[in-house]
Amino acid sequence: MMIRGIRGATTFEEDNEFDVISSTKQLVEQLINQNEIEPGNVASVFISATTDLTSTFPAKTLRQFSGWKYVPVMCMQELAVPGGLSQCVRIMIHYNTDKEQDEIKHVYLKKAVSLRPDLNE
Protein backbone atom coordinates (compact mmCIF):
# COMPACT_ATOMS: atom_id res chain seq x y z
CA MET A 1 0.00 0.00 0.00
CA MET A 2 1.24 3.48 -0.86
CA ILE A 3 0.07 7.01 -0.12
CA ARG A 4 -1.27 8.76 -3.22
CA GLY A 5 -2.40 12.32 -3.76
CA ILE A 6 -5.91 12.71 -5.09
CA ARG A 7 -6.50 16.19 -6.47
CA GLY A 8 -9.60 18.16 -7.22
CA ALA A 9 -10.86 21.70 -7.60
CA THR A 10 -14.08 23.59 -8.09
CA THR A 11 -15.31 27.15 -8.17
CA PHE A 12 -18.06 28.97 -6.34
CA GLU A 13 -20.32 31.74 -7.65
CA GLU A 14 -20.57 33.89 -4.53
CA ASP A 15 -18.58 34.09 -1.33
CA ASN A 16 -21.26 32.90 1.06
CA GLU A 17 -21.30 29.82 3.27
CA PHE A 18 -24.05 28.02 1.33
CA ASP A 19 -22.40 28.37 -2.09
CA VAL A 20 -18.88 27.51 -0.87
CA ILE A 21 -20.02 24.48 1.15
CA SER A 22 -22.35 23.13 -1.56
CA SER A 23 -19.68 23.49 -4.28
CA THR A 24 -17.08 21.82 -2.07
CA LYS A 25 -19.51 19.03 -1.12
CA GLN A 26 -20.17 18.25 -4.79
CA LEU A 27 -16.42 18.00 -5.39
CA VAL A 28 -15.76 15.79 -2.36
CA GLU A 29 -18.65 13.47 -3.27
CA GLN A 30 -17.19 12.93 -6.73
CA LEU A 31 -13.67 12.39 -5.39
CA ILE A 32 -14.96 9.81 -2.90
CA ASN A 33 -17.17 7.99 -5.42
CA GLN A 34 -14.75 7.96 -8.36
CA ASN A 35 -11.83 6.77 -6.22
CA GLU A 36 -13.78 4.53 -3.82
CA ILE A 37 -12.26 6.39 -0.87
CA GLU A 38 -12.67 4.89 2.59
CA PRO A 39 -12.11 7.53 5.30
CA GLY A 40 -10.05 5.08 7.40
CA ASN A 41 -7.40 5.07 4.65
CA VAL A 42 -7.18 8.87 4.39
CA ALA A 43 -3.99 10.20 6.00
CA SER A 44 -4.95 13.87 5.71
CA VAL A 45 -6.64 16.44 3.50
CA PHE A 46 -5.31 19.85 2.45
CA ILE A 47 -7.81 22.40 1.18
CA SER A 48 -6.74 25.70 -0.32
CA ALA A 49 -8.94 28.60 -1.35
CA THR A 50 -8.33 31.77 -3.28
CA THR A 51 -8.05 35.04 -1.39
CA ASP A 52 -11.60 36.04 -2.35
CA LEU A 53 -13.06 33.36 -0.04
CA THR A 54 -13.65 34.82 3.42
CA SER A 55 -17.13 33.55 4.38
CA THR A 56 -16.38 30.06 5.73
CA PHE A 57 -13.88 27.22 6.01
CA PRO A 58 -14.42 24.75 3.15
CA ALA A 59 -13.05 22.01 5.44
CA LYS A 60 -16.37 22.08 7.32
CA THR A 61 -17.77 20.17 4.35
CA LEU A 62 -15.88 16.98 5.19
CA ARG A 63 -17.59 16.70 8.57
CA GLN A 64 -20.88 16.13 6.70
CA PHE A 65 -19.60 12.75 5.46
CA SER A 66 -19.95 9.63 7.58
CA GLY A 67 -16.67 8.37 9.01
CA TRP A 68 -14.68 11.55 8.32
CA LYS A 69 -14.82 12.90 11.90
CA TYR A 70 -11.20 12.05 12.75
CA VAL A 71 -9.59 12.73 9.35
CA PRO A 72 -7.06 15.57 9.75
CA VAL A 73 -8.04 18.49 7.52
CA MET A 74 -6.25 21.80 7.01
CA CYS A 75 -7.34 24.91 5.14
CA MET A 76 -4.85 27.33 3.65
CA GLN A 77 -4.79 30.23 1.25
CA GLU A 78 -3.90 29.71 -2.40
CA LEU A 79 -1.22 31.92 -3.96
CA ALA A 80 -2.63 35.14 -5.40
CA VAL A 81 -0.98 34.86 -8.82
CA PRO A 82 -2.03 37.56 -11.31
CA GLY A 83 -4.37 36.04 -13.91
CA GLY A 84 -5.02 32.97 -11.74
CA LEU A 85 -8.45 31.43 -11.36
CA SER A 86 -10.59 33.25 -8.80
CA GLN A 87 -13.33 31.90 -6.51
CA CYS A 88 -11.66 28.51 -6.40
CA VAL A 89 -11.34 25.73 -3.81
CA ARG A 90 -8.64 23.10 -4.35
CA ILE A 91 -8.37 19.79 -2.49
CA MET A 92 -5.52 17.32 -2.01
CA ILE A 93 -6.47 14.05 -0.34
CA HIS A 94 -3.53 11.96 0.90
CA TYR A 95 -4.83 8.42 0.52
CA ASN A 96 -3.36 5.01 1.34
CA THR A 97 -4.14 2.72 -1.58
CA ASP A 98 -2.93 -0.11 -3.76
CA LYS A 99 -3.95 1.79 -6.90
CA GLU A 100 -1.29 2.86 -9.36
CA GLN A 101 -0.77 6.57 -10.02
CA ASP A 102 -2.57 6.40 -13.38
CA GLU A 103 -5.60 4.75 -11.75
CA ILE A 104 -6.31 7.76 -9.52
CA LYS A 105 -9.20 9.90 -10.75
CA HIS A 106 -8.65 13.61 -10.18
CA VAL A 107 -11.80 15.75 -10.40
CA TYR A 108 -12.07 19.32 -11.69
CA LEU A 109 -15.50 20.95 -11.77
CA LYS A 110 -17.03 24.16 -13.10
CA LYS A 111 -14.43 26.77 -14.09
CA ALA A 112 -11.71 24.72 -12.41
CA VAL A 113 -11.58 22.37 -15.44
CA SER A 114 -9.27 25.04 -16.90
CA LEU A 115 -6.63 24.12 -14.30
CA ARG A 116 -6.04 20.63 -15.69
CA PRO A 117 -7.70 20.27 -19.11
CA ASP A 118 -5.42 17.29 -19.78
CA LEU A 119 -7.29 15.29 -17.13
CA ASN A 120 -10.71 15.98 -18.66
CA GLU A 121 -10.06 14.42 -22.05
TrEMBL record:
InterPro entries membership: Chorismate_mutase_AroH, RutC-like_sf
Annotated EC: 5.4.99.5
Keyword field contains Isomerase: yes
Pfam families, per database record: CM_1
Key words of the record: Amino-acid biosynthesis, Aromatic amino acid biosynthesis, Isomerase
A Gene Ontology molecular function term of the record: chorismate mutase activity
UniProt catalytic activity: chorismate = prephenate
CDD domains from the UniProt entry: AroH (cd02185)
Protein name: chorismate mutase
Organism, as annotated: Bacillus seohaeanensis
